[in-house]
Amino acid sequence: MGKPTLDHRGPAFGELVIRLLNDLKKIFQTEGHVIIYPSSGTGAWEAALTNLFKPGDKVLAYETGHFALLWKTLAEKIGLDVIWIQGDWRHGVRAAEIEEKLNADHQRQIKGVMIVHNETSSGITSDVQAVRKALDKVGHEALLLVDVVSSLGTTPFYQDAWGIDVAICASQKGLMMPPGLGFNSINEKAREYAKKINSQQSYWNWEKIIAMNETGYFPYTPASGLFFGLEESLKMIFEEGLEILITRHQRLAAACRVAASTWGLENQCLDSKAYSDSTTALIVPAGHNADELRSTILNQFNMSLGSGLGKLKSKVFRIGHLGDFNELMLMATLSGVEMGMSLKKISFQKGGVQAAMEFITKGR
Ligand SMILES: *Cc1c(COP(=O)(O)O)cnc(C)c1O
Predict the structure, then answer these.
(1) Which residues 6+ apart lie within 8 Å of 149 measured at CB?
(2) What is the DSSP code (8-state) at residue 233?
(3) What is the spatial distance between Cα 364 and Cα 345, in angstroms, rounded to a whole number?
(4) N-term to C-term CA, the chain
(5) Residue 8 CA neighbour count, 13 Å, CB half
(6) Quick one: how far is CA 175 from the chain centroid?
């Protein structure tokens, strides 16, 4: 990424972009189009919604945690009429509730369903295939939009096979990059739908970008320096192999949970089938403050843990175990947590680190 800036209208750049777009499709597991924006994930959310919907359109969204709430708030801000299925931030999407709302929509006013695949704030992965099945069972034509910001490159995701119309992602989670690139991966149904809607936005417009991308270029200056990083991160993913990468994430997440349950810390996620392979959110025992624990660990051991977001502020801390992450990094992380809890005089069962080591070696 430190390379000198490449002329984004020159031939070398065009070739790089064509390679990247092809490789990205393999990660999203799609034959559709992947659109790259110079944006964070929030921009990619807005891009997807504004390409597809107009103010007043009805969409259905499900509350799995802070990110689902932020996306819903964004949708309302741009004028969409959001049917919000409230959740407790402790379970994944219950597809039956989606099915119920779709069934009740006799006039087929719901244009889209918005789901967060891996809810990073609560450490919950939802079953998006079950949501697809609910749409199919009802025979509802609404588009299915899935936020895969923290699941792509960590958790199985098959856009075409699972019938996902739009997948939204960003560079800084499983793709192991700095922030700065946002992605919309869209299938033919979504593309055609957007063409018909012909929304008034311009900067985010899929068609303009797809047209220029054909020869490897963009309608405006792309974040070209980050493209070198993307090239390298995709190379790393393919070198490891997507399947091996997924089992690595599963194994490290499971080892993290072994430590947590030995300590006696409660997982924010109450459904063992929905445990996230990217992030684990742990609740600190009553009478303690998760942010004070985090700051002790930061000051004493120079390790930064994820904070509780939104209504989980001060109640949970989060361990990220995604991307460029291995056994010894996990063990260092768990050691930092265990030492931090001792320093804060939190009452917990010692031996979480030991239990995680045994779990890891047993599996060899
Ligand atoms: C990080 C994240 C986002 C995007 O956040 P930005 O800060 O805008 O990049 C969106 N959804 C999920 C699930 C995330 O984890």
Answers:
(1) 41, 44, 67, 118, 120, 168, 169, 170, 173
(2) H
(3) 35
(4) 36
(5) 15
(6) 10
Residues enclosing ligand 1, CB less than 6 A? 40-42, 67, 116, 120, 147, 149-150, 170, 173, 179
For 162-216, write each residue's pLDDT tens digit.
999 999 999 999 999 999 999 999 999 999 999 999 888 899 999 999 999 999 9
Q: What is the DSSP string of 10-74?
A: SHHHHHHHHHHHHHHHHHHT-SSEEEEESS-HHHHHHHHHHHH--TT-EEEEE-SSHHHHHHHHH
Which tokens belong to 141?
């034509």
Nearest-angstrom CA–CA distance, 14 and 36: 14
Residue 335: count of CB within 10 angstroms of its CB:
16
What's the gap in Å between 67 CA and the centre of ligand 1?
7
Q: What is the pTM of this model?
A: 0.98
Domains with residue ranges and CATH for the chain: 11-240 (3.40.640.10), 242-361 (3.90.1150.10)
What distance in Å separates the CA atoms of residue 164 and residue 209, rounded to the nearest whole number?
Answer: 21
User: Which residue is it, tokens 């989606």?
Assistant: 98
**Distance from the alpha carbon of residue 170 to the mean position of ligand 1, in angstroms:** 7
Tokens of 77: 């801000």
Q: What is the per-residue pLDDT across 259-296, written as a single tens digit (0 to 9) for each?
A: 999 999 999 999 999 999 999 999 999 999 999 999 99
Nearest ligand 1 atom to the CA of 117 is 13
